[in-house]
Amino acid sequence: MDAPTTTSADNGTSGGNGEGGWFTPRRQPEPPVGGEQEPTGGSRLAALRPVGRPATDNGKAAQKRISPVAEADPADAANTEARADTTNASPTDAPGETTTPYQPDPQPLLPEQRSAPSHPASPDAVRVRRTMAEVAPIADKVTSYFYALLFVRHPDLRPLFPAAMDTQRDRLLKALLTAAEHIDNTEVLVAYLQNLGRGHRKYGTRPEHYPAVGECLIGSLSQHASAIWDEETEAAWVRTYTTISQIMIDAAAADELLAPAWWHAEVVSHDLRTPDVAVITVRPDQPYPFLAGQYTSLETPWWPRIWRHYSFASAPRSDGLLSFHVKAVPAGWVSNALVHHARPGDIIRLGPPSGSMTVDHTTDSGLLCLGGGTGIAPIKALVEDVAEHGERRPVEVFYGARTDHDLYDIDTMLRLQQIHPWLAVRPIVDQQAHVQLPDAIREYGPWNEFDAYLSGPPGMIRSGVHTLRDIGIPSERIRHDSVEELVAAVD
Ligand SMILES: NC(=O)C1=CN([C@@H]2O[C@H](COP(=O)(O)OP(=O)(O)OC[C@H]3O[C@@H](n4cnc5c(N)ncnc54)[C@H](O)[C@@H]3O)[C@@H](O)[C@H]2O)C=CC1
């Protein structure tokens, strides 16, 4: 990982035709192993058939192999959509936290609710979901076993993961299982997987790693779902995983032609606004294209291979500098390093930009923006973006904080308000308002001509979306980053 590769496709030299799976379905589950014990059983690698595809294919062939059947039901669509933005789910780790095995999201959120046709699920999707239901109560065992298999069979992959694997170690597995569960939901899934594939370039992930991961994924699932595991189930998983991995590989290969796997960036200023919040500005070593409202992944030199997400706090600037608002949270290794240790001259690494909380410049709808705490960062970027486009559409910003003191960027926001007559900024301080941010918007409006943008703690996003729907803003006009990713970002 410290010397990541930029190779992400084999360009067809390995002879795969792209239509088959990488695995020879195996009939017998592996003999049981426990905890840290060394997993046994033969590897399927001998039967693997790496798939080569010209980088320009851009995932279309694999996409075609996804069942044309659309979402099974609205609840599933909700789960998929909620995760569609969980980009860069990765072999990262957050030291000092507890493992969070795969669980269906109990409160799925739809940034853009999609109407879900009521087609039945495909046979593969039914088998995949049956497996997931079977292993759900023992998800932590599935996770442990998966990584034990992976690192024992493929010790060369161990350096791609952080040194401490005791926390959130299942992010890779979770992403794969999420994708598998929603294999029928073509459009959302392909976008999600392409993003995931691109995001994995910075870890040094190569095409030949995917069969290894798939072997171990299926090895762990067959072991823990042995009561229902049969030939058809294994074949369904092989097809599903092959499709998933091919889309990721193709997206990474296509991205390789366009962008580096990561950027180095030098800290050029570090402004401690409160004892816990710093505004950090960096200069990337090469141009870094992004859109206002997006976020990136960031790795510090103090915690190698631990990546965390931060939103850009400004629209793209002519000097190419990027800013982030970072709050040091308890046990947050990355955030504490950035707030308390980073200084000008330090070099960090950035992954690719991600996120769809961007301004639609094809409409002139107003923007209703809710920024809670450091969630004001991308909201400020959106305001700058509207200003740069010379638009005169109304922008209403509600800036929530616990105390006056926590409104660390209010001066900047009020300055913007002074310059731009179309902008209104309303600080909502919990202690004074006696309501939390989302409820404050009920006192204003009407909002039927507005698109809504939410940024802040996961609880605020959840209750904000409910409030906005409650006051009649349709789901497709509500934008925010994935709650799952935000939860993972709190470090
Ligand atoms: N793109 C995004 O969505 C971004 C999200 N963030 C996230 O924002 C959070 C910022 O943390 P802090 O500054 O400590 O914020 P905080 O925890 O102090 O909350 C800020 C404000 O949000 C509102 N709020 C908080 N929890 C709420 C709930 N459950 N229901 C309704 N309203 C609630 C309150 O008005 C509160 O004052 C972090 O979790 C960070 O990861 C930060 C930057 C960008």
TrEMBL record:
PROSITE patterns: FAD_FR, GLOBIN
Top EC group: oxidoreductase
Gene Ontology MF terms in the entry: 2 iron, 2 sulfur cluster binding; heme binding; nitric oxide dioxygenase NAD(P)H activity; oxygen binding
Globin domain span: 119-253
EC number(s) recorded for this UniProt protein: 1.14.12.17
Domain of life: Bacteria
Region (Disordered): 1-126
InterPro entries: Cbr1-like_FAD-bd_dom, FAD-bd_FR_type, Flavoprot_Pyr_Nucl_cyt_Rdtase, FNR_nucleotide-bd, Globin, Globin-like_sf, Globin/Proto, MRET
Record has NADP as a keyword: yes
Cofactor: FAD; heme b
Keywords annotated in UniProt: 2Fe-2S, Iron, Iron-sulfur, Metal-binding, NAD, NADP
Name the UniProt record assigns to this protein: nitric oxide dioxygenase
